[in-house]
Amino acid sequence: MIVTTTESIENFGISSYEGIVFGEVISGINLVKDNDAGLLNKIDERYQKYENILSDSRGVVLEEMKLKAAELGADAIVGVKMDYETLGSDNGMIIVTCSGTAVKVKTFM
């Protein structure tokens, strides 16, 4: 399935719009768990974990969106937008959301 942030797909035409599809995932994070000053390796490890959580979350929301688009009979998703927010009183969770328009496409000959 083609997934793009653009409103059109080169060499394809949109034959029908099937609806807006979404993907959401909430993950627990805690970057400030250890308050030991001067432990650069610990900080680097925490940032790497945070990056991994973001990367994994992006993959999950995109796959969720593709499944929903496929259920609508779509061939592609255009106009994809992704957003990140922290949640919780201690900002201990992150929500990754994305949305786009599920479409059916036809190739230009």
From TrEMBL:
Pfam families: YbjQ_1. Coiled coil: none annotated. SUPFAM superfamilies: YbjQ-like. Belongs to the UPF0145 family. This is UPF0145 protein SAMN05878443_0953. The lineage of its organism: Bacteria, Bacillati, Bacillota, Bacilli, Lactobacillales.
